[in-house]
Design brief:
Largest sheet: 4 strands, mixed
Number of domains: 3
Strand order of the largest sheet: 1-2-4-3
Oligomer: single chain
Helix content: 25-40%
Structural class: alpha/beta
Distance between the termini: 40 Å
Number of helices: 6
CATH superfamily of the largest domain: Metalloproteases ("zincins"), catalytic domain
CATH topology of the largest domain: Zincin-like
Radius of gyration: 20 Å
């Protein structure tokens, strides 16, 4: 996939990719903060650059988002709780993921807010969410695909910074592991959104017509989705 990298004032380095089969411009921010723009193959790079500059405020806001520290008793996905346990018997942070718990054991000389403890807890929570997402999203995706007559090629789970899901021109679907922090109503919205992309890749009128046909009120739900962020702690208690 051909691309060019630009250094944009006030934004930083941006990679703009030309993508065959794409009909729209799409901007994403990776977990490491890098910025990527996908444009239709026939579109000039300058159009992608202008699109990036037009989204500068949004990009800046995403980079400034501060993630709240993980706390004892916090819900992790649909089935687990996070527990921090101080211990005089450990010299390094130890983590484990169980059916209903994510356990973080740390030395008594540290605190929950310590950077090392938080980093270990985050890593364990990511593992828990990815495992849960793979277990719960696959059957739900298949169920909704059969119900509404969609066909997809594959499903994968990743940690993404700014998107809940994606679908490429080959009908490969990717879901953000942070979906497990959302109510099922929102999860179904994302699943049906990506399934609709197996028929219509862009977000034009045809897409919304198809989407509303399988999920009446989809446009209203888009507003609800904006209340959530793909981070630990952005969750509800439903199951």
């Amino acid at each position: 996939m051909p691309y060019k990298e630009f250094d944009v004032s006030g934004i930083g380095k941006v990679k703009i990719y030309k993508r065959r089969g794409s009909r729209s411009l799409r901007l994403t921010i990776a977990t490491d903060g890098s910025i990527r723009v996908s444009i239709p193959y026939w579109t000039p790079y300058q159009a992608g650059l202008a699109f990036t500059v037009s989204r500068k405020s949004w990009i800046t806001a995403q980079h400034k988002v501060e993630v709240a520290p993980l706390m004892n008793g916090m819900a992790v996905g649909k089935t687990r709780m996070l527990h921090f346990i101080p211990s005089a018997e450990v010299t390094r942070v130890k983590t484990s993921v169980h059916a209903t718990e994510v356990i973080v054991i740390y030395n008594v000389g540290l605190s929950i807010s310590d950077q090392v403890v938080q980093a270990a807890a985050q890593s364990a929570c990511y593992r828990a969410l990815k495992s849960e997402a793979a277990k719960l999203l696959a059957p739900r995706l298949n169920e909704l695909a059969i119900k509404f007559g969609f066909a997809y090629r594959s499903m994968n789970i990743k940690r993404m910074k700014s998107r809940w899901g994606s679908c490429d021109q080959h009908k490969n679907i990717v879901f953000n592991l942070f979906l497990m922090q959302l109510p099922w109503e929102c999860i179904d919205y994302v699943i049906l959104h990506e399934l609709t992309h197996t028929r219509v890749l862009h977000h034009g009128p045809n897409f919304w017509r198809e989407f509303e046909a399988v999920l009446p009120g989809a446009r209203r739900m888009r507003g609800v989705m904006r209340q959530y962020r793909p981070v630990l702690g952005s969750h509800t208690s439903d199951s």
